[in-house]
Amino acid sequence: MDKTESILPVALRLGINSRHEPLIFLRSDSPVARSEGFESMSRVKVEVNNKTIIATLLIVYSDLIKPGFAGLSETAWKRLNITEGQRIKLSHAPQVDSLAYIRAKAFGHELNKHQLQEIMRDIVEGHYMDVHLAAFITACANNNMSHEEILYLTEAMVDAGETLTWPGDKIVDKHCVGGLPGNRTSPIVVSILAAKGLTIPKTSSRAITSPAGTADVMETMTKVDLTFEQLKQVVEQHNGCLAWGGSVSLSPADDILISVEKALDIDFEGQLIASILSKKIAAGSKYVLIDIPVGPTAKLRSKESAQALAKQLKATGDEMGLKVKVVLTDGSQPVGYGIGPALEAWDVIGVLKNLNSAPQDLKERSVLLAGELLEHAEVVKPGEGLKEAQRVIESGEAWDKFTQICEAQGGFTEPPVGCCKMNVNAYKTGYIRRINNRLLGRLAKLAGAPADHASGVYMEAKVGDFITEGSTLLAIHSEAPGELEYALEFYNTHKEMIIIEEEL
Amino acid sequence: MDKTESILPVALRLGINSRHEPLIFLRSDSPVARSEGFESMSRVKVEVNNKTIIATLLIVYSDLIKPGFAGLSETAWKRLNITEGQRIKLSHAPQVDSLAYIRAKAFGHELNKHQLQEIMRDIVEGHYMDVHLAAFITACANNNMSHEEILYLTEAMVDAGETLTWPGDKIVDKHCVGGLPGNRTSPIVVSILAAKGLTIPKTSSRAITSPAGTADVMETMTKVDLTFEQLKQVVEQHNGCLAWGGSVSLSPADDILISVEKALDIDFEGQLIASILSKKIAAGSKYVLIDIPVGPTAKLRSKESAQALAKQLKATGDEMGLKVKVVLTDGSQPVGYGIGPALEAWDVIGVLKNLNSAPQDLKERSVLLAGELLEHAEVVKPGEGLKEAQRVIESGEAWDKFTQICEAQGGFTEPPVGCCKMNVNAYKTGYIRRINNRLLGRLAKLAGAPADHASGVYMEAKVGDFITEGSTLLAIHSEAPGELEYALEFYNTHKEMIIIEEEL
């Protein structure tokens, strides 16, 4: 029942960022809205160039959209691969059959492999609205997923995206179960492992709720949005890469689920496990080291919960042919001095270049993880990893490898330095007793991180340090004076982010 | 930390219908987006005229919004009560504390009265995104709510909206647990009860997924979007009204939850109970009759599930001081001939005017319900309700009352008749064996109902009728020829909506 070409609306690029959910804007008096009986928030099938997407409709009662046109958000525009002036065909979106499985899960049923595969495929193909994703996440949070379900979910996430394969067996990766500002070990660990000849195709996320992700940090020094082909080429030439995962389609269902999880602030362990492992399996890794910082304001708050998670990660990895090793680390305070993309990049450079000013805690943690990974992949004997990792840094091999990778990704540039800086002084004399990672993270974000690369917080003191009233506790860096003010006001009303006590 | 007036963006009315979720459109290069570090889909606090709303942000990278402006959707515009040219203050939305209770429910905890009150208040004040509502609905679906939780939820829904009070004790209402096309007894029952002098402040919904709601049907004959004051006046003058519930704020949290439930297609019994009862309690009713049609394609599919629901409705009503009576009715096929706003209105008029052409099943069901309600409110003796209800119709008193109510609501007009009609003939000779309510409802919607008032389906045969091949089975009515075609194609591919068999 094709309509005559002339009544199909012409696509208009609105330049609206609606993240992963495509939007279409249609006049209330347009023939297609009337004949199809579309309502606002209807799901609409949009067809052009043999491509089809499902978009959420917003009905427009003004001249924002001119008669004969239909506006598309950026996600819709890009997925349709359309050019200005093309006509699009609109109809009611078909029913999404896999929603029945989400309902089944909501009512307590266990899902099988086929059902989870269908759900992940529909997520990636954009067949769900965010409310459906929220229902899936909540349903899974509620009744803990069985071991089989977690396994199937992991497989389904891998299958719903692209996968990479590499020659040889020594394909390694590392992952940190976030929550610790400044814990930027990845660029250093990748440089050490790649320098040692292991293949380490590292993809990282941008910050979602934190002041910086590894992709944001790397972006202050090189290009991180590589194509699939570019990423392969960099790794083939230099054994490793430090790319943004968002531009290569490894476990894309995971990225979409995470964005809704953040809005809900609901995490469920099953998805966390599937999220971590599916990315690594899709990237072609065989040996993975997972860093779980434990501390009162880290993601994992107790050793027991971290150990339970570690057990599940290992068991699920085993069944998928991925050798998982877990290291529990100190999550009681930020790592390094910098919090924010460029400030963390300067810390990384300092460690790799063996500068005296480099943060020793970041170096120690990086060589610990790199050493563990060398041992885990059986390229050094047990007990020799740490020393070897240290040697690779101190010899300059890691720095050479890091700059090679940056050059291959598009050229190395020094991280930017912000225009504005303000020191925050200690409010009393004493020992630094406790640091709240979450509040410090918010402080860095209020200063402008991660969007403003040079913004953030520079720590001048660590837990256990003795500090005298009036001396510098931390510095706020920003790219605009207004943001300094915002951040300072937040610090002044949240001084408990750094507790100073007279006795340690 | 107020910004200077001049950098605040000027509000622009975009005329976009985003239903209950307010949207704000902001240029990526606007000073406030940059200084606040806003991202697409951030929650933003919008302040003007001492009013505050929380809106979802969409970042615009084009000239759709001119520099210095911020676009607002209709919901945002109306809630702020703003005029063109005013400047608005934008900041990050504060954390919504009651989200923690939704998370608690998702992890299986029981909620107390205070927590449910907070959640309902935040829903009504627009503090949640749809994903949060989806999480609440899913969390409640999963672990059946306790009797206390349902009670607290009902109370919280009432408390989060307006309430009506009426003199006297004989305040009655009726409700039908949907799912049956054409089951338009409300206008008739209200007319009978109001004619008998009982107070019946009936508010109804528009269709959400069905081809017509009572508000849509009444709208073909009179004005239904009354203000709170107008509604009170009509009831004070004529004992009853037939208004749209959406324009008076009785249990508004329920309306918002329902719209997300429909998108999820997840219903949970606790919310259904709270939804029905909260509306009636807020409207000031003391005696309520609830019609539960039971049938394979009705909402309730088995007598057992209907009885269980009836028991819960009565128990919860009791504790809230509302006397609930439940009648289980035949839900195996549509009621009356018409399916669609105007076609159902004609059926209602036929019954009230005692026309020979009136559908007898609609009359019988209406007098049954009216009779039960007369007995339930103790205005007639047990066993005398049905006869009395019949008398009120046949004497013309009900029709008089109906027209009085319509006149008071804004004037009575005859329902419209569509331009186009197409008969669908029986595909074989035999008895009508089964009718699928859901498929018939979709057929009427494809013809244009409920948006096109005159569109829909007119049934020429009922279950049990003998019909010869080629004689008329039903007629499709529409306001445009294109829609007839859509509907016909759907009928031709779904003939199982009416099963004809040679033997009964």
Automatic annotation (TrEMBL), chains A, B:
Q: Where is the Pyrimidine nucleoside phosphorylase C-terminal domain?
A: 431-498
InterPro entries (UniProt xref): Glycosyl_Trfase_fam3 (IPR000312), Glycosyl_Trfase_fam3_N_dom (IPR017459), Glycosyl_Trfase_fam3_N_dom_sf (IPR036320), Nuc_phospho_transferase (IPR035902), PYNP-like_C_sf (IPR036566), PYNP_C (IPR013102), Pyrmidine_PPase_CS (IPR017872), Thym_Pase_Put (IPR028579)
The UniProt catalytic activity note for this protein reads: thymidine + phosphate = 2-deoxy-alpha-D-ribose 1-phosphate + thymine
Which protein, by its recorded name, is this? Putative thymidine phosphorylase
For this record, the Gene Ontology CC terms, alphabetical, are: cytosol
The record ties this protein, via SMART domains, to: PYNP_C (SM00941)
Please, one GO biological process term?
pyrimidine nucleobase metabolic process
Task: State one molecular function term (GO).
Answer: 1,4-alpha-oligoglucan phosphorylase activity
Transmembrane stretches, by residue range? none
What EC number is given for this enzyme?
2.4.2.4
Enzyme class label: transferase
Q: Which PROSITE patterns match?
A: THYMID_PHOSPHORYLASE (PS00647)
Look up keyword Glycosyltransferase and say if it applies.
yes
Q: Which family does it belong to?
A: Belongs to the thymidine/pyrimidine-nucleoside phosphorylase family. Type 2 subfamily.
- Which keywords does this chain's UniProt record carry? Glycosyltransferase, Transferase
